[in-house]
């Protein structure tokens, strides 16, 4: 008898009887050596009904209302502080989605210009009216694309940053120079940067860098950043209020203790 083939757990064998070939199927016999795997059932998730969810939400709102209308100022301040910190964590998680992977550092050797060339390019850039605005969205792909479009006909281009925080113009200048491969000629009036395209400038096939945000994403990121800034300021204000209230309570208790000590002696 020869075993020819195995199909799943059933074996097919060939038998010779009186010069006649017969096929037969043998059922497997599980012995002690064969280990049987145990199937573990996953715990079923208990689904809440719509009514249970509404009751839970009403209970949460009732607790929040009690804290907001509490006669104790410390309870009200702590409730606002916890709520603001939860919002701050949520905004930080949202902003992490806009973090782009940093590309590998490329060797970039900007052209060396003499002082006379820089002075000439600065005068040319100030006289010309072509400019690229950088608004509340900050630096995104559209800013670099517009610079390359200006560099088709002009050697220089002005980048005007409004609104711009103190010191932010230098960060913008470095970021734009890295993305556009332009040369910074001068930074004027704390919000105007003049860029030079270079002597050997060649317009790239893809003028908008791939590792930048789109216009809509840049606006969404700005809105989250503004909300995070206001929330952080509100948290600092609440922490100061809580600290002042605790100091007031300590002074009040100390004065009460002093009055309690002095009252028996007066009698």
Helix content: 40-55%
The sequence of SSEs as H and E is: EEEHHHEHEHEEH
Biggest β-sheet description: 4 strands, mixed
Shape: flat
**Tally of contiguous helical segments:** 6
User: Distance between the terminal alpha carbons, to the nearest Å?
Assistant: 119 Å
Number of strands: 7
Provide a short characterization of the protein structure.
This protein is α+β, with helices and mostly antiparallel strands and 267 residues long.
Properties at a glance:
three-stranded antiparallel sheet, alpha+beta, about 270 residues, four-stranded mixed sheet
Protein described:
This protein is α+β, with helices and mostly antiparallel strands and 267 residues long. Helix content is 49%, strand content 16%. The chain contains 6 helices and 7 strands. The chain has helices at residues 50-68, 73-96, 115-127, 141-150, 168-180, 215-266, and strands at residues 2-7, 10-17, 20-26, 131-134, 156-161, 183-188, 192-196. The strands form 2 sheets. The protein has a 4-stranded mixed beta sheet, with helices on both faces. A 3-stranded antiparallel beta sheet has the order 1-2-3, with no helix packed on it. Strand 2 and strand 3 form a beta hairpin. The radius of gyration is 37 Å and the shape is flat. The chain starts with a strand and ends with a helix. The relative contact order is 0.10.
């Amino acid at each position: 008898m020869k075993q020819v083939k195995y199909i799943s757990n059933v074996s097919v064998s060939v038998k010779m009887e009186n010069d006649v070939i017969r096929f037969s199927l043998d059922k497997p016999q599980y012995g002690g050596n064969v280990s049987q795997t145990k199937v573990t059932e996953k715990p079923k998730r208990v689904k809440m009904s719509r009514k249970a969810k509404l009751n839970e939400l009403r209970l949460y709102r009732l607790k929040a209302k009690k804290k907001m209308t509490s006669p104790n100022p410390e309870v009200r301040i702590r409730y606002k502080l916890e709520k603001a910190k939860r919002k701050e964590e949520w905004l930080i998680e949202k902003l992490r989605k806009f973090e782009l992977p940093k590309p590998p550092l490329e060797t970039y050797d900007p052209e060396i210009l003499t002082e006379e060339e820089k002075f000439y390019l600065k005068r040319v850039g100030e006289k010309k009216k072509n400019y690229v605005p950088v608004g509340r969205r900050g630096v995104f792909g559209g800013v670099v694309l517009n610079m390359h479009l200006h560099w088709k006909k002009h050697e220089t281009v002005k980048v005007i940053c409004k609104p711009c925080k103190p010191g932010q113009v230098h960060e913008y200048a470095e970021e734009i120079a890295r993305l556009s491969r332009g040369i910074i000629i001068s930074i004027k009036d704390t919000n105007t940067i003049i860029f030079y395209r270079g002597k050997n400038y060649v317009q790239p096939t893809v003028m908008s860098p791939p590792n930048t945000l789109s216009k809509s994403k840049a606006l969404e990121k700005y809105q989250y950043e503004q909300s995070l800034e206001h929330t952080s300021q509100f948290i600092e204000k609440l922490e100061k209020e809580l600290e002042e209230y605790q100091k007031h309570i300590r002074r009040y208790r100390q004065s009460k203790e002093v009055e309690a000590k002095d009252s028996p002696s007066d009698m």
